């Protein structure tokens, strides 16, 4: 049963990573803290500035943070909501 739950989480994370684009806004459910500093806060929107995929396939986003001129790495499973920028329709 654990294996199935883990697979579901991985599929959902992959879907989010493919669906969310640079410029979209995300929300996190819990605070993201690094070295005792709260980089991301619940209830606040953050803009995606870059999408990354490592050589091993680990997907992440770089997003604006609470600290000016500092980005935070965010993994898809930490996202609770997002809003996409309007996309131009392809003809």
Secondary-structure element order, as H and E? HEEEEEEE
Count of structural domains: 1
| N- and C-termini, Cα separation | 45 Å
The strand line-up of the biggest sheet is 6-5-4-1-7
Provide the CATH top-level class.
Mainly Beta
CATH topology: SH3 type barrels
Q: Given the helix and strand composition, which structural class is it?
A: alpha+beta
> Outline, from the CA principal axes?
globular
Largest sheet entry: 5 strands, antiparallel
Q: Which CATH-level-2 architecture?
A: Roll
Strand percentage: 35-45%
Number of helices: 1
The count of strands amounts to: 7
Kindly report the average pLDDT value: 87
Helix residue percentage:
10-25%
Radius of gyration: 14 Å
Unreliable stretches = none
